[in-house]
Structure formats: structure tokens, C-alpha cells
């Protein structure tokens, strides 16, 4: 059977995580292509609705990456979103998608290695969890086999 | 312009000689600060040495991607007049009032007409001047793909049939009658940054450089790796086109007095250069290639360069072989290069076969630059570099003429950038800025109203040489783009940031009446502003462009999985398209600029930058946490060059305290900070009463210095005869009698540096050790001095002092990291035990005193507090993290913030002063503007939806929203920082952050996840 290739969405803040991702590029640190980055000015901009919509649209895993605690360019956007992430994780558990599919990470702009490591670990974790049940439900509805 | 006017009342130009990266930086800084500049270069296009490189350390970024935006800015800036193929003939007059004669060689091309179509080159390749001079087989005759000016030059002497050449040019740009042109010019100041030449190894027959095509210089190797080079980036042996499997780098060719005709100094950049080339080679060819660097001392002394070396060795498995290579001999039968060398561990001669050898050739000053300098009458040092002083690092012997970059001393790009900005700062004092320094918008088309149009998207995909095109098929990516709804155009544009591609994109936008643009290329962090400017020129609002990062976050990281990379590139393009369709025109907010400056730290760096700015009439607040000025330099008595430091500091402090534009605030701590670039407010608490004071300023300069490292090693602090080099500096001055009474002194290098706690090299300790050893010998010539070291890092001209120390009998003994010297307290002095690598034996030594070269470490406590308060990034070791290690080494990521001196990384006094003048130069460019741009990413409240629930008021990290008299939340655009936290928290979704609106973010998710729900 073909290996399940999850689709992972990473919301990255412009000042730290997105820069770290570019840094990973500069250093040519390979990580799985499953991770797709959406740039936001601050991780604090990531709304609960964005996280839920990502799952509704079929993402298998989502994570938010912000600055290290205390280093947020906007003081505390990263800790504010962390609370939101924790809240959405509970919601995901309740509706059966599973809170484990959503995570919050912190990293500084210089941490290209950390970015690549997290991208790899998150992809592996989601691969182990299997496809987002929303997607399987949709596929079933269409009469297709589960990917 | 009339002569003999009062110099400061006239608006004179400044001449910048040399259009390499340093000259461009100086010209740009001056132009931004409102000065008119004439930038001349003797070659046919600007860019200098850097444009010949493939990648640059330490990020291994593509070089052209890094430099090309600066080049086009340099070519674009209204205040810069560019003259190529031009040299200075004479300079007369004095500071503020020079007359220079320039001679411009004929190009035989009309620059206004040449479209760089390449017809002349295709028909008559031999007639076209091509000046990298390294290899004539490069794919185009442009010096590099983004050449400025983008035009050919003709070599008339090689042209047999001039008429045919004229006829082939459809633009009618060939000017066979063009002659050498002499121009006389009045200028206020001159900046010399003509660069240097690369040592020519032709005379070294033992390396067979002339004889064997597989022996190349490091710059030639760079050309081979470069996508715009002769092999278009494919690594092949020049001899017979096969891929090499084993490559050797030979260090110090032409440097450190090793070979015949070599200079005695160290060329400073070659160790990093070789490491970079070896790493890039390993990265591209993985394990199929073996790379070995033959070196004497590995000199990775720059900021975090030591960690780069670690990565080269441990992650990329580059072999570093400490040895003396004797010869390279080609074996005709096998085609191998046999390299014979000795290592100092066993002293045996060994021979190993390689496929290619790269000679790490150093820098030297060629005759034409030397003659130019002597013609002007400026003094040169013993090595023919411009003579400068420790306390005025970029000033030549003639006031008003400044030198920077390689012409001043061998150095790498970041240090060149620093000196260029420093020279710009000093040169700017000689002339007044122009009155109007605001952006010239006349070149932009009037903005087209697109509000009633349906989205019509144009996709432009960069191949970025091999960076993108080498991993994914850009054409198929463009074809994919065409299939997306509402996409009118989708095409590949080569280097999207090059002038040619920019022109194509602009014309396509106009011709096709596009109203949304997607660029598939590098990170928006690099070129977003450039493409936004392009949209303005094409008559579109600049916020109608979206950049898909298919390089940094795709091809660079998924090169091992090209299929997946292509698929991901498609997702990223689709994401950008769906998102850009939701974008709408926005207006930037701007505010008046506060022109006062806050300098934090009253050491040499802080004082020097405060003085440079105050001398130009700016108001400076200099905040110092202690009760006196001078910083760590107060403990230094002498520089290695022999100047006495205390009188300099005393004179500088006096000037600072007496200056009418500088207010020094002692015993002050920074406690809070608000505002934005151009209108900061910083709160201080001032001891002893701890009263609070707030300062308004537009620029912040951090010159908070570093601390002397005092690790608990080798009895430091426990034994009276064990001290640091800094302690010894004072000891030598105050108690020379005790030195006279000593028989033996020992020094240990890298104590508390290059170790797990502090992986960086402290840069200054090798020179301190050599300095103190020489001073000891001055006092007590009979003294025996032993220096135990790992690599002696006496870069640049410091090598001369290292040589002198050895000549005068100082004994340098190397030790291995894993086998450090051991020290025990003795009855008198200490006893050292260490392994001598040449003898291969453990030796024991009694010393009357032990100096530990402990170097500098970041003032972690201060930088941590300041980083928190000012929201700045730091390196892992606690130094402030610059915005761009190569090109913006002193700018911090928040506009208006700069770092200088040892708060950036360990450096000596001369380097710190250059930093100080450089940040003043950078600041003055910003201060020339009367308004500051705040961008458009600002939160807006929809009053109809707002329920005045106060959630935004509580959530905002900056306390900006408030409930206004009309009963809904109001956000002042001048105060909004644009984080979007309020928008995310607002339960009624009444708040939207412009540029990052919810529908745009959701559209991105749609674009990305489309196939799943379709």
C-alpha cells in the first residue's frame, strides 16, 4: 500500500517562525514537503476559525509557530494564540478529529534547525495518526476508497 | 558649478571610486541622506568581485540574489550618477573643495539605445568586451545576468568589420567613433573603494597552476559552481569534463608569506571562502565527492564563523587537514593531481591523489590602484593598502578622502559594508543634503482603479538560475498556473529580480491589463518591496501582489524530492492565486519623523557614533548605565599598533560631555519602550534617586558592549600569577618592574572560547596575546614566552605582529581541543604541562605568570533585558542579531534600530569605531526623510459590527483600541503595530487586519486544500 502522505498546514509568524523557515532554506535543511506554510504577521493573528477551517477543508495536521516566549515582536501574541490553540485542541477532541492533530511551537528567527526538525516530527506524527477523519468521511461519501 | 564657493553652503557632489558592493553601499547611503553622488567603476558594469561569486558565507545564499537588489537600487537611485569604464586621473584641492578629472574609456555603445538583446554578441562574439576575465566561455557576455548598466561594450580593436557590426544592431546603438572622454568635476569629498586584485599564482610552478587546467583559483572555482558561469553551475573538471570525485583546497596561496612573491599578511577571508566552497560542493554532490582543505591555521574569527566551521566538519564532513602542502604534480597517465604534504604531527611527507585542486588565493593591491592612490598623494602602508589609523579607520592621510573595503585592508563583505557606511557618514559632513529627499514618484504610472474589475491574475515564475529551475521544471509550473481560474498570464521569467525580467513583468501587466500579480520566487522577506515598487511603476496598487515562496521554503529544502517539490510549488502558487484575488488596494500610513537619536552605551562605540551624528547637528541622547564614559576600553592601555588608548578616550569623553547637541545621561537604565520607527518613546530610570524620564527619538543605536570573559579555569581568580590578557595589559603599564623580574611567561589561547559553553571565537584574543608578548619583550628582552594556541588568528595585517613575535623568540605551541594544557599552582608561579605536537611529547614548564586569552562574551544580562524591552532578536550567545549578516550587518530587523561595536560580536577598537561611524551613516540616511512609512498592515474596525465588548481593548498587546464616544472600538492607525491579535480575538469579526484579512487567509487554505474538498 502506498504510504499515506499527510497535508500539514503551518501558520508561521513573520518575525520568527517564517524567518526560521527561510533560514532552514538557506542552510538547505531538508524536511518533508508535506508542510505548507501560511505567513501571518504575528502568530497571535491566527484565529480559532482559521484552525477549524483548515481541518474542515481537509488538512491532516495543523500547527502554529510563533516566537520564543518573551521574544514576540508584538509582546505576547504568541502566548495569546497558545491559549487559543489549547482551546481548539479540546474542540477537536470533542468532535472526533483529535486534538493531537493541532500543535503550538515556539522558535526564534535563527532556529532553522528547529524549524526543520519540528516540520519532520509533526509530519511523522500526523502520518502515524492517519488521515483527517473529515476527509475520509468525504471520500466515503463520494464512494472512493480511503487514501 | 562655480568654484571657490563656501563649501558647506554649496551642494557639492561626492565622488565614489569603485562600484563593488562597498562602493554601492556608500553611494546608496549618501544618496538616501540627500547627497548627490558620482559613482565610477573602471569595468563595464558595477558589482565588483561579489558578482563573480556563486554563494556567500555564512548563509550559503546565492550571491546574485543577495546583491542584485542592491545593484538595481544603485542603478535606480536618482541621486547617483553612474559612470562605468571610468578612472580618476587627478585630484586637486582640499577637503570640501576638490577638483577631480575623470577619464572614461569608450564603450562604443550608446547606453540609452542598447537593449542588451545580444545580437552583436551572437554575430560577433569576439567583438564584445567581457570582463570577469576568468573564463570566456560563460553563457552570456553580460558580466552577470543582472548587470547594471544592462548593456554590452564593444572591443573595437578586435572588431574586423565595423560596418557589419553596426548593421547587426537593430537599436542602432553601436558608436564606432566614440572616444576617450575627460571630465572635470568639483566634489566635496572622495570615497575610495576600488577593491583589490586576487593574487596570481602563475609564478608558482610547484602548484602547476599554469600547466594543469584542473588546478584553479578559488574565484575560478566559484565561477564553475555559478549558474551564470561557464558550465552553468555544473561541476566538471576543466581538463576533460568529467565530474571530480576528490577536490583539495590549498590555503594561504599568496598570503602569509608562504610562497614566492606572496604577501606577508593574512587575506582574512580565504578560510571562510574555502569552507563555503567545500560545503556547497558537498551539499550539491552529497557523499559522492570528497573535499579536503589543506591549511595552517583555520581562521574563522567572524561572528558565528566558528560554528560554520563546526558545521563544515561535522555535518558536511569536509576534511580539514592541518599541513604544509609541498607541491601539486599532475600525473599524465591517470589524470590525477598528486599533492605532497607534511603534517606537523609526524613530520612525514605524504602524497595523495586528487581530481581537482583549488588554490585559495589572497588579496593584493594591483599597480593601477597603487598608482591612482599615489597620484592623489594619499599615503599607503607597507603592503600598498591605504594607510589608516586605529582611531579613524576609514580616513586616509588626506582629509576629505576616505578609504573602505579591500583597499583599506583584506576583509570580507560584512566588514566592507561597515566601512562603506562609515566612509559615507564622514564624507557626508563635507556637503549639505539637498532640500528634497522624498521619494520620486514621477516614474510611477498613475494608479489604476481596479475596484470594479474582475480579478485578472498574472503569474510570473522565477527559475533563479538553478536555485529553483534546477529542482523543479518551471515551465510545467507555469503551465499549471495557466489552468487556474482567472489567470490570464502565467510564464517563466528567469531571474525575476533582474532588470530584464522586471521590465517584462511591468510591460505584461500594462499590456494585458492585469490587476493581480503572483510571483513564484524567493521569500517575500527578500524581494516583496521590490515587486511592490514594480507594481507601482506599472500603475497598480502595491498591495495587489502576492509572493509564493517556492525557493527558500520549497526547492531549497526539498531538493532531494523533486517530484514532491513540484507538487508543493503548485500548491503554493495556487494558494497565492486564490489569496491575491481577495486582496484590494490599500494606502500606506505615514507620520512625521522624530530626528533625535538615542544611543545606548557610553563606551568608545557609543561615544563615536554619538559624536558623528551630533557633529551633523542631530540631537543625541547618550545613555550610560554607569557613572562614567569609556566602557571596557578604559582597561586597555595600548593597541597592537602601539597607540596609547587612555588619551584618546579622555579626549573623546571630553568632546562628548562638552558637545551642545549631546546630552549624556549617566546611571540610567532602560525600563520601557513604545512607539514605532521614527517616533519611539523610551523610558529610563536614573540612579540614585531612580526617577523616571521618557525620551522621544526616531533612531536607536545599541552600543552596549560586551564583557570580559572570566571562566573558572586554570586557577583564574585563585592564583595571583594567573590573569587575563586584559589584566596583563594594565599590569604591563603599571608594574613594568615585575615584568623585568620575570624569567618565563606562558599564555593559553581559547580559554572560554570555542568550547561547548561558548562555541564562538572571540576574535580579539590572538592579537591581544601577540601584543602583550611583544610588550613584555620590549620591557624584558630576555624573557621566555610560550603561547599555547589552537589556531593563531592574526588576520589581515595583524599577521605582521605574529611574525615579529616569532622572530623575537616567542614560542608558539599548538594544543588540541581534546588535550588541553594542564596547570598547577607552584610555590612561585605555576607549572604547565602540555603535549608538543612536533616532538610528540608531554612537556612541563614553570612560568612566573600565566595569561589566559579569555576574550569577550555577550553581556547576556543587559542584552536580554534590552532585547525584551525593545523586542529585538539575539544570537544564541546573546549578541544582537543583525537583519542581514552580509549586506546589513549593523541594521536590526526593526527599522530605526542599529547595533554597533562589541554588542554585535567581539571586535577590536578600530573595528568598533568603524561600526560606530557606520551606524551613524545608516542612521543619517533614515534621518534625511521627514516622514516615516508605517505600511498598511493596520487593524480596522467595522463600527456596524462592533458590540463594544472590550475584548480587543484587553487583548491588544499595546493598549491601542479604546471605546470611543460613538460607542464602538477605535484603533489609531498611528499607534497600531499590525499584529492582528485583536482581529483574531474579536468575537463579532468586526476587526480586520489589512493585508492579512480573514478572507485572504481562508482563501489560502482553499487554494492549498482545494483538491480535498473538490
Quick tags:
heterodimer, A: 147 residues, alpha/beta, Rossmann fold, 5 helices, 4 strands, B: 1014 residues, FAD/NAD(P)-binding domain, seven-stranded mixed beta sheet, five-stranded parallel beta sheet, 26 helices, 24% strand, disordered N terminus
Please outline what is shown here:
The complex is a heterodimer of chains A (147) and B (1014). With 147 residues, chain A is α/β, with parallel strands linked by helices. Chain A has helices at residues 17-26, 48-56, 77-95, 112-129, 133-141; strands spanning 8-13, 35-40, 61-66, 102-106.
3D architecture notes:
The complex is a heterodimer of chains A (147) and B (1014). Chain A has 147 residues and is an alpha/beta fold. Chain A is built from five helices and four strands; from the N terminus they run E-H-E-H-E-H-E-H-H. Chain A has one domain: Rossmann fold, CATH 3.40.50. Chain A has helices at residues 17-26, 48-56, 77-95, 112-129, 133-141, and strands at 8-13, 35-40, 61-66, 102-106. In chain A, strands 2-1-3-4 form a four-stranded parallel beta sheet, sandwiched between helices. The longest helix of chain A is centred in the middle third of the chain and has 19 residues, at 77-95. In chain B, strands 1, 2, 5, 6, 7, 8 and 19 form a seven-stranded mixed beta sheet that branches. In chain B, 28% of the residues lie in helices and 24% in strands. In chain B, helix 16 runs parallel beside helix 23 (909-927) and helix 18 packs parallel to helix 20 (765-779). At the A-B interface, helix 1, strand 2, helix 2 and helix 3 of A face helix 14, helix 15, helix 25 and helix 26 of B.
